[in-house]
Amino acid sequence: MSQIKEITPQQVEDKMNNNDDFTIIDVREDEEVSQGMVPNAKHIRLGDIPEKIESLPKDQEYVMICRSGRRSMNAAEFMKERGFGNVQNMEGGMLKWQGELVF
Predict the structure, then answer these.
(1) pTM here?
(2) Residues known to be catalytic
(3) Given this model, what pLDDT does residue 37 score?
(4) CB of 69 within 8 A of CB of 89?
(5) Distance between CA 97 and CA 68 in Å, rounded?
(6) 73 pLDDT above the threshold of 60
(7) What b/e string do you get for 32-69 counting C-beta neighbours within 10 Å, with b at 16 or more?
(8) Residue 77: closest CA among 60, 64, 66
(9) pLDDT tens digits for range 3-62
(10) Does an H or E element contain 43, and which?
(11) Phi/psi of residue 48, each to 5°?
(12) Which of 61, 69, 86, 87 lies 20 to 30 A from 55 at CA?
């Protein structure tokens, strides 16, 4: 069983609307991201996570996103193992996202 908390797409949208201080990381591949991303999300492909997270502050809150929630859960678990204390996974991924998209 994973140690990662899951957050619903609606909760992510609520956090965005409340201007909460958190970072969304989209771990999908380039061609998936070209179909639309959550506004203000950072795109870091899953395969790039090990090298790219070195530059991310560990005390920030992160919400990980992919297409269905599986790859982002793997990324969240990897980050947690590397000392990131506040990492959540968006349940259901972009398949469940009802909010605005940016291209």
Answers:
(1) 0.95
(2) 66
(3) 97
(4) yes
(5) 10
(6) yes
(7) bbeeebbeebebbbbeebeeebeebeeeeebbbbbbeb
(8) 64
(9) 899 999 999 999 999 999 999 999 999 999 999 999 999 999 999 999 999 999 999 999
(10) strand 42-43
(11) -95, -10
(12) 69
Residues 6+ apart with CB under 8 A from 8: 90, 91, 92, 96
CB under 8 Å to 40, separation ≥6 — which residues? 16, 24
Distance (Å, rounded) from C-alpha 103 to C-alpha 87? 25
Number of Cβ within 10 Å of residue 102's Cβ equals 10
What confidence score (pLDDT) does residue 1 get?
56
The span from the CA of 47 to the CA of 98, in Å, is 26
- Pairing verdict, β 5-7 and 62-65: unpaired
Domain 5-95 belongs to what topology?
Oxidized Rhodanese; domain 1 (3.40.250)
Which amino acid does the sequence have at 75? A
Residue tagged 């990897």 (tokens): 78
Question: Are the CB atoms for 22 and 61 separated by under 8 Å?
Answer: yes
Angle at 82 between CA 18 and CA 68, to 5 degrees: 55
